[in-house]
Design brief:
Layout lengths: L6 H21 L8 H18 L6 H16 L5 H5 L3 E7 L4 E5 L2 E4 L7 H12 L12 E5 L5 E5 L9 E5 L8 H7 L4 H12 L4 E5 L5 H9 L8 E5 L11 E5 L13 H8 L6 E4 L6 H10 L6 E5 L3 H14 L6 H11 L2 E7 L5 E9 L9 E6 L3
Parallel strand pairs: 7-11, 7-12, 8-9, 8-10, 10-11
Antiparallel strand pairs: 1-2, 1-6, 2-3, 4-5, 5-6, 12-13, 13-14
Length: 386
């Protein structure tokens, strides 16, 4: 990854950045309105001036790196710029100024970039949030937002974050893996794909289950491609990640409360509203809370073929988690009635797993076939080889 991380260079970068900001203020240049090419030339000249005035011995390579880093500081998101630009990186995790991690091909590794100090991290966070109208300070020390490119960012600062400010970025991509690529990588087999296609085409209600980073959204994108073209789809997400190659999609997105605590729109409200919009199928990005009630009822009342994902480490865990969500959401019914609701609404659970080497794969595809004696009678349509 780009950028030098030694302490002496970081201090030089901080001084150069401050010098450039002062020169911009003196000239009355507003970065947001300035021509990018002219602004880049101005910054390059100002950095060279700072180096010459302070007689800093720098090689041409180091000077070019300093100019690039300063450009990233003024025009972008500082040390995160090369990571955001790298298409191989899926997640960026900042645990304070010295510990930046990235996920590449499912494997976490430490990145060769760092921030100068805690203030530097917070400055970058606020630059991300400024165009979004969101704030981050001691009164509101936690924020969840979506960048203009669709990437999802979560930030939390002291006093809630004990080890310094933290940033978690899930990068948005429109280039989701195709079925052929997933088969080549071993994520699924042709037999598994055929099973999934049949489940979608026959309008089975599907839940995709898996732990963190197992590829739930990728799988949801994949199987959604097989929905018949004449059907109308309503998607509901906290942050838009689904990219459906389909001619008739209406995408809805939840909204957090504003700084006054007003204006929040929940997934549950959007599910309720979506049922008034004549959908053939409802696709809920992830089940997390009380929206599970409306989703299961929709699956039971004419919206067959609906889909969602859930965070769970096994098929049985997924069913238990759905039961728990119903209970904590105030759904008042007997254990037997809850089991009957889930068993009649859900048809198929696709369980995903991530292997130690970072590869993701479908571990099993299970059909729910309730019987008198067993509400969660599971028939295995597909199981991966150990």
């Amino acid at each position: 990854m780009a950028g030098r991380i030694d302490a002496e260079y970081q201090q030089l970068k901080d001084r150069a950045h401050r010098w450039v900001v002062e020169r911009l203020d003196e000239e009355g240049i507003e970065v947001s309105n300035a021509n990018r090419e002219l602004l880049s030339e101005f910054i390059r000249s100002a950095v060279g001036q700072h180096i010459a005035l302070n007689r800093v011995p720098l090689s041409t390579q180091d000077l070019n790196q300093l100019v690039k880093d300063t450009l990233d500081e003024v025009l972008g998101f500082g040390p995160l710029e090369p990571l955001l630009a790298d298409p191989r990186i899926n997640d960026i995790l900042v645990n304070g100024p010295d510990n930046v991690f990235i996920e590449v091909a499912g494997v976490l590794q430490k990145a060769q970039v760092r921030f100068i100090n805690d203030d530097h991290v917070i400055r970058v966070i606020r630059r991300m949030l400024a165009p979004l109208g969101r704030r981050l300070d001691e009164a509101s020390p936690m924020v969840d937002a979506r960048l203009p490119d669709g990437s999802r960012v979560n930030a939390i600062i002291p006093p809630l974050a004990l080890n310094g400010p933290s940033i978690s970025i899930r990068k948005f991509t429109r280039n989701h893996l195709s079925a052929e690529e997933m088969i080549r990588s071993g994520s699924l087999t042709q037999a598994c794909l055929d099973t999934l296609i049949k489940a979608v085409e026959t309008r089975r209600n599907i839940i995709i289950s898996g732990g963190t980073g197992t590829g739930k959204t990728t799988m949801l994108n994949l199987i959604s491609q097989y929905i018949p073209r004449e059907e109308r789809i309503l998607t509901i997400e906290d942050s838009a990640e689904l990219v459906l190659n389909h001619p008739h999609v209406v995408s809805l997105e939840t909204r957090p409360a504003n700084t006054e605590g007003k204006g929040k729109v929940t997934a549950r409200e959007l599910v309720i509203n979506s049922l008034r919009m004549r959908p053939d199928r409802v696709i809920l990005g992830e089940v997390r809370s009380n929206e599970i009630i409306e989703l299961l009822q929709a699956m039971n009342t004419g919206h067959e073929g609906s889909m969602s994902t859930i965070h769970a480490n096994s098929t049985r865990d997924a069913l238990v988690r759905i039961e728990t969500l119903l209970a904590v959401s105030g759904y008042e019914a007997s254990e037997k009635a809850i089991g009957r609701l889930i068993g009649s609404a859900l048809d198929v659970i696709i369980q995903l797993e991530r292997l130690p080497d970072g590869r993701r794969r479908v571990s099993e595809v299970v059909s729910l076939s309730p019987t008198e004696d067993e509400q969660y009678n599971l028939d295995y349509l597909y199981r991966s080889e150990a």
